[in-house]
Write a structure and sequence with these properties.
By secondary structure, the chain is mainly beta. The protein is 12% helix and 44% strand. Strands 3-2-6-9-10-5-4 form a seven-stranded antiparallel β-sheet. The protein has a three-stranded antiparallel β-sheet with strand order 1-11-12, with helices on one face.
Length: 167
Amino acid sequence: MPPEVLLPQLASPDLLRSVFRRHAAGVAVITAQGGGSPVGFTATSLTSVSAEPPMVSFGIGTSASSWPVISETEHVGVHILGEHQQELAATFARSGADRFAAPTGWSEGPEGVPVLDDVLAWLVCRIVARVPAGDHRLVLAEVVLGDPTGVGRPLLYHQGRFNGLRD
């Protein structure tokens, strides 16, 4: 008997989620200051866009609690998380969490942007565009300054879980 042939699925949100569960992505936290209180969220959509000028992009849902601030702020912090920061990634991904309360360590950085402690690297970026993309916005941001000197190995997101690299 011949093997069963699986037909391709029609495009849907579930198809996209199923495919991207198989795509390992680095984990970042995006932060901003808004109305006197910081906001932030976990992002696996961070991408290097341009070297000249240095630019990055990330996506954010328009229903996300951080969107109202990101939609208006001039600067954001971009933090590359290490494998030792799985709980931090989960905190910034959790809806309704007080993301900046203890044990989250952070301080006010350049341009008033919240900078997280103990990350592998961080950037402060100036937002140059917010591009509509379905139920999200693609945010393009020019790098202003940063620090790449954190120690450790990167945190990855794969199959719906945070993971470290395997040797």
